[in-house]
Amino acid sequence: MFKLFINILIVIGLVVFKISFLNTLPIFNILNPVIIFIIFLAITNNKHYIIMAFVAGYLLDLYSHYTFGINILSLTSVAIISNYVYTSVLTSHRFLPLIFLFFINILLFHSIAIFTISILSFLKISPPSNLINLETLKIITSEAFYTGAIIAIFYLINNFLQKKFSGIFLK
Amino acid sequence: MKKISIKSKRAGLTVVAFMLLIFLHSLEILNPIEKTIFNFFAPIQKNIYSFGLGIKDTVETIKYKNNLTETEILKAQIRSLTLQNAKLKILGEENKILKKELGFSKTNEYDLVGARVIGYDSLHNSTLLILELEDDNVNLDDIKIGMPVVVEDGILVGKISNINQNKLFIQPLISSESAIASTILNSSYTTGIIEGELNLAIKMKMIPQTEKIKAGDLIITSGLEAEIPKGLLIGTVTKVSYDSLSPFQIAHITPLIDFTNLSNVLIIKKY
């Protein structure tokens, strides 16, 4: 229960950080730490990863003018798919498959969101939107690349530290 | 087998919870909770947003160390002179009309509501800004979609695109989905629609080739939209594109404000 509470606090912090801080900074505005955190929880098989995806999606939806539920749907789908692929499909949990998983899931998150928005616009349930264009594609691909790069850096640092300090802890 | 059934149970529960949440949200039962969350985080977000802008300014100051102060002063002077110029041109035009229609008088006193930017829409391919009203006593029902949002002395930022409980969303002029009726202050006062392009620039399309437009011409709102008064400054023409195969020309417009640096804005409620 305590872990769940801590995770909820982290998600709240990340949502506020993304909406009010990261979005003001050029280059960094492309990153979404909320998706990274949810994918991380899903692939580490955290007990509450679906609840966390739900909470994060709900908070993101509160700060979006699009139809309510789009972020919940995208984030929860991505969390379930990430967990399934990482635990049941990927045989190797090494560097490249992990980076690839993050890359694909970022693309998947935006694809689900844009597809849902477009369908709702087409059905005239929500106002018309013009999200399927080259610029959107560019932004989403850049986000996937940047996220992949950041995960790669963290992975390598983590590996380096584990190798460096494992001897000390074993003694 | 057991693992799969647990997973499918979880997925089923998630779907049910999702549907229930959408249902409760559409019935507005969750409004008090959502309002409380927004009101609780708005002051924190305001400070974090200002902090973010501060960091961005510091980085830019270091980047353009020598030229920045001078450039900023010149930019401010250009803004002020452009504004005066626009006002004089509008006054000149109004004067002509007034001479024809004696007794008619018009003042530019707007009923304004102050608001603060606290962040951006959560789906980042959208440039929509989230606003929080400065005055808690202002009734949110008085604010309508389509109302113009300005800074300083009437420089247009965009218009209200969505009202969701306590939150207001502005669609800036550079947003791809933005379209505003406007006038070019050239000799024939060409009217048209300015549109945002790729969240980066503003263009006025569908201008007949016969219209004479040149770089430096001012663009103001035309007043053809019910919610938007005439004479709000938009920007200046920087380039005009001609295409011999097309009967129309395109005016490329440079806005007078930096849309990534907005903090306090004003909503024009009535004019």
What are the SSEs and their pairings?
The complex is a heterodimer of chains A (171) and B (271).
Chain A: H1 2-21, H2 33-43, H3 49-62, H4 70-89, H5 95-122, H6 134-170
Helix pairs in contact in A: 1-3, 2-3, 2-4, 3-4, 4-5, 5-6
Chain B: H1 2-26, H2 31-63, H3 68-100, E1 111-120, E2 129-133, E3 148-151, E4 155-164, E5 167-172, E6 179-184, E7 191-197, E8 201-208, E9 218-221, E10 233-242, E11 248-255, E12 264-270
Antiparallel strand pairs in B: 1-2, 1-12, 2-5, 3-4, 3-12, 4-5, 6-7, 6-9, 7-8, 8-11, 9-10, 10-11
Structure description:
The complex is a heterodimer of chains A (171) and B (271). Chain A has helices at 2-21, 33-43, 49-62, 70-89, 95-122, 134-170. Chain A is mainly alpha-helical. Chain A has one domain. The radius of gyration of chain A is 17 Å and the shape is globular. Chain B has 271 residues and is an alpha+beta fold. Chain B has three domains: 2-62, no CATH class; 111-172 and 260-270, Rod shape-determining protein MreC, domain 1 (Thrombin, subunit H, Beta Barrel), CATH 2.40.10.340; 179-258, Rod shape-determining protein MreC, domain 2 (Thrombin, subunit H). In chain B, 34% of the residues lie in helices and 31% in strands. Chain B has helices at 2-26, 31-63, 68-100; strands at 111-120, 129-133, 148-151, 155-164, 167-172, 179-184, 191-197, 201-208, 218-221, 233-242, 248-255, 264-270. In chain B, the strands form two sheets. In chain B, strands 1-2-5-4-3-12 form a six-stranded antiparallel β-barrel. In chain B, strands 6-7-8-11-10-9 form a six-stranded antiparallel beta barrel. In chain B, a hairpin with a 3-residue loop joins strand 3 (148-151) and strand 4 (155-164). Chain B is globular. Mean pLDDT of chain B is 80; it is low at 101-106. Classes of the chains: A mainly alpha (171), B alpha+beta (271). Chains A and B meet through helix 1, helix 3, helix 4 and helix 6 of A and helix 1, helix 2, strand 1 and strand 4 of B.
